[in-house]
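Chain A, query sequence.
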Amino acid sequence: MHPNPLFRTDDRELIESIVAEAGFGMVFLTTPDGPRVAHVPLIATGDGAFQFHIARSNALATHLDGAKALIVVNGPHGYVSPRWYADRASVPTWDYVAIELDGSVTRLDDEGLEALLHTSITQFENGLGGEQWLASETPESHWAKLFRAIVGFELTVETMRPTLKLSQKQPAPVRDRIAQTHEEQGNPHLARWMRKVSA
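Chain A, predicted structure.
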């Protein structure tokens, strides 16, 4: 988390929209064997929590229930060259969007995990457009076998630490030029967030 308050926001709706757009994050926990991380799709519950599932064989699976964990979500990011400024006598930097969420974790029961999987399928299939794949297309025996190989969890967010470092220190015309250059360099998502988040 960048320490400059200029890069902060208290807008919970904005924060949750960043997480939803990314759809994926990293769950960190210190285990008896040392720090571990799991890479997971994330689903917001709408009441201040996020759900995810991991393989039952994952190193975190037996340690998460009842623990306090950290989720990190990385949004778009990109290098900023001093040649994009009017005055090149500067240094390079990096624009980025990142969210840290920490809180207590509880394990989902089978019914909760089933609901999470169906919600995930609906949400991510909708994002693709076109005809959706349906869980009913998978034979029940195969679904049951895979279901037994995963574990679901819910993290109730106690603290949100967002960083939206989007060249806010620069004057508006320079920020506009940086956003345009990000776009031209193949980074339209970062450019869009620069335009969305005011200085």
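The first helix runs from residue 12 to 22. The chain has five helices and seven strands.
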